[in-house]
């Protein structure tokens, strides 16, 4: 089904919140997702790498992943997910676009303005958020702030990454893990007590551990030396064991903090949508929090780790399959390079995903 084309006219400004007025809440009113059609199975990887289907599945829980075709960019993925989220929300115009990504189309400019233009959104403010795999949660918090400040009444939030373009194709430890995709939600101004209202949030970072997850080449630090970076420095690298330990710790602590702020007990959480980095990671965080296995949303087996797209893709898939239903209390938690981490809670609205 082809979604309606949004108006090219710029939506009127919401204006600032009057002094003394209560800030509006950001309410989820649309959700969409997109993965490229090309599927790479574990068996295909095993034919060209020193690995096997069993090795990948037992260590990550991944059976397949989707990857972009030559010439397809993160912006293309974001465009598809954005269109679907707008259709899910009824096609109403949005007043800002926030795109979370670590694989922008170009180092400069940001990818979001072009995505907004391609969506026919006129001159709305649009910008990128870079927090690696925590990016979507950071973007949700940022968009919620725009709505609370009265700067926008509707915001399109997209998480999109094409990690297959930055992993070493000969490295089984990263090539087997990552996939490409995009997920998006539309947030509108609403009441904090209504279904779909986001909040509270918990965000954090630790730049002292930045080297655990990195792409060394391409930035000002490398370029300012005047030296050509060796080929491996252009690829994504991470210290897997250290990252796993940090992810379990930070996601658990962040999730507990946001539940405390919301005044919720863990047994009041209906669904846990964590960053789909590794099946063992999801199990470890759920166990530490005291969540039952049936409350954990799993999507990683079919798409791999899609970085900033991970949480919205899993959420859209779960809502589509009826795993997440209207009225469910949902806990979102993510962890990524930076290091960064973040969590949020919401009660799921009656919102039909468009995939």
From TrEMBL:
GO biological process, one term: fatty acid biosynthetic process
Superkingdom of the organism of origin: Bacteria
Alphabetic keyword roster: Acyltransferase, Cytoplasm, Fatty acid biosynthesis, Fatty acid metabolism, Lipid biosynthesis, Lipid metabolism, Multifunctional enzyme, Transferase
EC number: 2.3.1.180
Region (ACP-binding): 276-280
Beta-ketoacyl-[acyl-carrier-protein] synthase III C-terminal domain: residues covered: 259-348
A Pfam short name: ACP_syn_III
Annotated catalytic residues: 133, 275, 305
GO molecular function per UniProt: 3-oxoacyl-[acyl-carrier-protein] synthase activity; beta-ketoacyl-acyl-carrier-protein synthase III activity
Pathway: Lipid metabolism; fatty acid biosynthesis
Presence of the UniProt keyword Acyltransferase in the record: yes
Subcellular location(s) per record: Cytoplasm
Catalytic reaction(s) noted: malonyl-[ACP] + acetyl-CoA + H(+) = 3-oxobutanoyl-[ACP] + CO2 + CoA
UniProt domain Beta-ketoacyl-[acyl-carrier-protein] synthase III N-terminal: residue ranges: 127-207
Cellular component GO terms held in the UniProt record: cytoplasm
Major localisation: cytoplasm
NCBIfam families attached to this UniProt entry: fabH (TIGR00747), PRK09352.1 (NF006829)
Subunit structure: Homodimer.
HAMAP family membership: FabH
UniProt note: domains: The last Arg residue of the ACP-binding site is essential for the weak association between ACP/AcpP and FabH.
Function in brief: Catalyzes the condensation reaction of fatty acid synthesis by the addition to an acyl acceptor of two carbons from malonyl-ACP. Catalyzes the first condensation reaction which initiates fatty acid synthesis and may therefore play a role in governing the total rate of fatty acid production. Possesses both acetoacetyl-ACP synthase and acetyl transacylase activities. Its substrate specificity determines the biosynthesis of branched-chain and/or straight-chain of fatty acids.
Family membership noted in the UniProt record: Belongs to the thiolase-like superfamily. FabH family.
Name this polypeptide is given: Beta-ketoacyl-[acyl-carrier-protein] synthase III
Organism: Streptomyces spectabilis
Gene symbol of the encoding locus: fabH
